[in-house]
Amino acid sequence: MSTSHELSLAGRTALVVGGSTGIGRGIADAWAAAGADVTVLSRSTPAGPGHEALRWAPLDLSDTGAARTALADATTDALSLVCYSAVHYGDRRALFDEVTEPEWRRQLEVNLHGLWMTLHATLPVLRGGEEPGLFLGVSSEVVYNAGPGRSGYAATKAAGAALLDSVAQEEKGEKVRIVQVLPAGMVDTPGIRRRRPADFSYDSYMRPDHFGRVATELAATSGAGLHGDSLVVDEAGRWVSAHERTPVSQSRDVVA
Q: pTM for this one?
C-alpha cells in the first residue's frame, strides 16, 4: 500500500463540501498537499495551517436556491473528485421529545438534502472524464448503531448512507465510483469541542488528518476496487470495510 506522500494528484480538480473544519478539512488538506486544485464550499472560511492552498466559496445549505447556485458555480468540467462532509450534529445529544422541529429540519437540510443536491450537481460532470470520477461521502458509525439522544442525527446519516449506496448500485463503478469513509472513534473537531467541557481531554480522540492517507489513495486510484464500500478509518490511518467489521458504537445513555 502506497503512503500518501508518494501519490500525486497534480492536474486533478476537487470539490469538498463542508471542508473548512473537521474530517472534510483533513481530506481537503490532503488532496491539496498531493497537488490537487481544491475548492471548499462551507459556511466558514478555512483557517489555520494549509488554508492558503485551498480555494473557498460560501455555502449555506439552509438556503436551497443559493446553495444550488454555489454548487453549480463550483462544478467545472475539470472536476474529478468530490467529497461531501457537511454535517449538522445538533447542539447536544438530546432525547427525541427535547428536539425542536427547526433542529430536525436543519439536520435534514445538511445531512441529507445537501448531499442530494451535491450529487445532483456533480455526478454528470464526474461521469464525463476519461477516468472514473470519485464521489467520497463522510459517513458515521451511527449508521450502524442507532442510539439514544441521536435520533435525528442517526436517521439523517443513515438515510444519506443509503442514498449513496443506492446511487452506487445505479452507477456500477463504470464512470463514477462512490466510496464512504467513517471514523473508528470520536474525532476532535470544532463541532465536538463546542459540546464538551473546557477541561475535557481529547487525547483518545482521532484527528481530521487521520483521513488524509485513505482520501489520497482513493483519489489517486479513483476508488478502484472499492466502489460501493464503506471504510472504517482508525487513528493510524488504516481502514477496513464496515461490511467486514461493524464500527464500535459511540452511543451513551442520555438523561432527560
A: 0.94
